[in-house]
Design goal:
The complex is a heterodimer of chains A (392) and B (285). Chain A is of the alpha+beta class. Chain A has helices at 46-54, 96-105, 113-126, 142-154, 172-187, 200-206, 224-229, 234-239, 258-267; strands spanning 4-13, 20-30, 35-39, 61-66, 69-70, 81-84, 160-164, 192-197, 209-214, 217-222, 246-254, 279-283, 286-290, 300-305, 311-313, 324-336, 339-346, 349-356, 368-373, 379-382. In chain A, the strands form four sheets. Chain A has a six-stranded mixed β-sheet, with helices on both faces. In chain A, strands 13-12-11-14-20 form a five-stranded antiparallel β-sheet. Chain A has a five-stranded antiparallel β-sheet with strand order 15-19-16-17-18, with no helix packed on it. Chain B folds into two domains: 4-67; 76-248 and 256-279, MetI-like (MetI-like fold). Chain B has 15 helices and no strands. The longest helix of chain B has 32 residues, at 11-42. The chains are: A alpha+beta (392), B mainly alpha (285). At the A-B interface, β6 of A face α8 and α9 of B.
Chain lengths: 392, 285
């Protein structure tokens, strides 16, 4: 095991007009034994980062340190890292056993044949491919190949494991099982792991810490709890959660305390008790009081609120104290088992709400409905795809 | 079984199939005519060689004359041996140098790499006659004239571009991540190449061996101008039957039939790899 440090990595591909910046000053540290997830959409530079750590891609600038040592001059062979490739990269001329045994038979790690057999057997059983050991890898399904590729990593000791979308090609059920399995292995003390994924659920469930990558830049690094509770910008907020976090565009202004009550009553939209906050979020006549916003009044911002933090308010009547009611009509209704996803059209924007099905038994399309926002569950970002967080 | 009508091809499709097959058969027969002609010619006597097509009494006399079995003395076997030595030697040298070259050309792009590859290819389409005069002068001066070493060397012009260009496309078809996986498994670049990559391009090596051997074996102009007796090959030696007071087409034919055997034998030996090699990359895994 060893700590990994990635320091201002930069990598461009191509030249001239077609130059593409794959990594743009990517920096993060992975502690010894830590499980670190790199989360990002495709093309964000996740694989390039991983390959730079492995030494398969030579960065234009920046350094990779493994256990404190700069490995710029260390060949991939001697970095003592294990990598699971998204394309599996299984050796087509070998069967499953020989593929998994390959690192254990290499000149670097050579082990006695009996050890090789027992290690490969144990990992294969754990991955549910114990019965396939004699098969040629060309006869396997993609899900089986992916598990062989993962097995080739897990059988060996290494400074760190680099896993590139190791669960991406499994079917949904197997993916959940394998995720749980990986979670179990990692809590037993897995070696340092850098795990690349585009699936936020994997990141939240497996990682000790997560780094969100976009267009070659690290946007935020933090624990799953931090990423969820206080995303650093609008992109990170939208990277986690399904349905996606709701974004309402609007402006900031100084809260007008009591004045707001009468005004909003006449407009019939924002009805809330005045707060001692200094700001309010305003959009289309709605006013939501906010505290401690780090931006001047007049700034255009986006208010983000997760679908599960919203409540539906059907029928007339005042909203419960401390909540703000937005009026809209039901645009889409999706009954998903015990829960119902309701998309409500409020003014120009669509807002998703996840409600227990029992709470909306009679709801139908185009019904008038109220959406209740608890201001304490909101996040405020400056406008723009990567608008900075300005709420506490 | 499903309804027979659903699987039976339509009348139109069957007709096109039949026409295509007939055309292919006709072409097959047509392309065999020269072979049949040469074999027939090699079985004819002197008097029959230019006077008949099919009505003749077959005789193996020409073969024994060419091989010197009739006591007349012949250098055919020596020339045959020279052909084998130079062709096999040329293919081996080309493989030894060409495999690493093709691998490097497939995996590494450096300044001028495409120009280098193109120059190599241009050896194949530039007529050999362009270089033959300076080459023969150089060979005379260096003492390479009429030596096996010289012949193997000059045949590199023929075999090396083939080996490098064909194998490069085979190497390119291999995903680079396979080698990267081997590196991370703890193999050095050389071990990854020898243990992983080379076995995977075996079909390509087989195919390229055969092609290079045929081209080297059939080459006429280099041995014709750069050898006289010691390293003269079987292609050139046939000329001897045409000179003098009598033109012996039947002897040339007998020599040619025997000279066609080594490529044929080689093709049969590596047939197993050949089909995979020639269709490699055409079929998705």
């Amino acid at each position: 095991m060893a700590a990994i440090s990635v320091d201002t990595l930069r990598k461009t591909f191509g030249r001239g007009a077609g130059v593409v910046t794959a990594l743009d000053d990517v920096s993060f540290d992975v502690g010894d034994g830590e499980f670190f997830c790199l989360l990002g959409p495709s093309g964000a530079g996740k694989t390039t980062t991983l390959k730079s750590i492995a030494g398969l891609v030579e960065p234009d600038k920046g350094a990779v340190r493994i256990g404190g040592q700069d490995v710029a001059d260390v060949e991939p062979t001697h970095r003592n890292l294990a990598m699971c490739f998204e394309s599996y990269a299984l050796y087509p001329q070998h069967n499953v056993f020989d593929n998994m045994a390959s690192p254990l038979r290499s000149p670097r790690l050579r082990m006695p044949a009996a050890d090789v057999r027992s290690r490969v057997g144990r990992i294969a059983d754990m991955l549910g491919i114990g019965h396939l050991l004699d098969r040629s890898v060309t006869q396997l399904s993609n899900g089986q190949r992916q598990r062989v590729a993962l097995g080739r990593v897990l059988v060996r000791p290494a400074h760190a494991y680099l896993l590139d979308e190791p669960l991406a090609h499994l079917d949904a059920k197997l993916r959940a099982t394998m995720r749980a399995e990986l979670k179990a292995i990692s809590t037993d003390g897995l070696t340092t792991t850098v795990y690349v994924t585009h699936d936020y659920v994997e990141a939240l469930s497996l990682a000790d810490r997560i780094g969100v990558l976009r267009e070659g830049r690290i946007l935020q690094v933090g624990t799953p709890r931090e990423m969820w509770a206080s995303p650093a910008n609008a992109f990170v907020a939208q990277a986690f959660g399904k349905p996606r976090i709701n974004m309402l565009a609007g402006g900031l202004r100084t809260s007008r305390d009591h004045a707001s009550t009468s005004e909003s009553a006449s407009s019939g939209l924002g009805r809330s008790a005045p707060r001692d906050g200094t700001h309010a979020f305003v959009a289309g006549g709605v006013e939501i009081p906010l505290r401690d916003i780090d931006a001047p009044p007049g700034e255009s911002v986006q208010l983000a609120v997760r679908p599960r933090d919203l409540r539906l308010h059907v029928g007339a009547g005042d909203p419960p104290p401390g909540k703000v009611r937005l009026d809209g009509v039901v645009y889409v209704l999706e009954h998903l088992g015990r829960q119902t996803e309701v998309t409500v059209q409020i003014g120009e924007s669509l807002v998703s709400v996840v409600a227990p099905r029992a709470a909306v038994p009679t709801l139908a399309l185009d019904d008038k409905v109220g959406v209740l926002i608890d201001p304490s569950t909101t996040h405020v970002f400056l406008s723009g795809e990567e608008g900075k967080r300005v709420s506490p | 079984m499903t309804t027979p009508t659903s699987t039976r091809p339509t009348a139109k499709k069957r007709l096109t199939g039949a026409v295509a097959n007939t055309a292919l058969l006709a072409y097959f027969a047509f392309s065999l005519i020269p072979v049949a002609f040469i074999i027939a010619l090699s079985l004819k006597t002197n008097s029959e060689q230019t006077t008949t097509y099919l009505s003749f009494t077959p005789t193996f006399e020409n073969y024994s004359t060419v091989l010197g079995l009739d006591g007349g003395g012949s250098s055919y076997l020596r020339f045959f041996g020279a052909s084998l030595i130079t062709s096999i030697g040329a293919v081996l040298v080309s493989l030894l140098i060409g495999i690493p070259a093709a691998y490097a050309a497939a995996r590494h792009r450096f300044k001028g790499s495409e120009n280098l590859m193109f120059t190599l290819l241009s050896f194949r389409f530039a007529p050999e006659l362009i270089v033959i005069i300076p080459l023969s002068v150089i060979y005379q001066q260096l003492g390479l004239y009429d030596t096996f070493f010289g012949m193997i060397w000059v045949l590199q012009l023929v075999t090396m571009p083939l080996v490098v260009w064909i194998l490069r496309s085979f190497f390119r078809d291999l995903p680079v991540e396979l080698e990267q996986a081997a590196l991370l498994d703890g193999y050095t670049r050389r071990q990854a190449f020898l243990k992983l990559v080379l076995p995977l391009v075996r079909p390509g090596i087989a195919a390229v061996c055969l092609l290079a051997f045929i081209f080297a074996w059939n080459n006429f102009i280099f041995p014709f101008t750069l050898t006289s007796s010691n390293a003269q090959t079987v292609t050139v030696s046939s000329l001897a039957f045409l000179g003098g007071n009598q033109v012996r087409f039947n002897l040339v034919a007998a020599g040619a039939v025997m000279a066609a055997l080594p490529p044929l034998v080689l093709a049969l030996l590596i047939q197993r790899y050949l089909v995979r090699g020639l269709s490699f990359g055409a079929v998705k895994d």
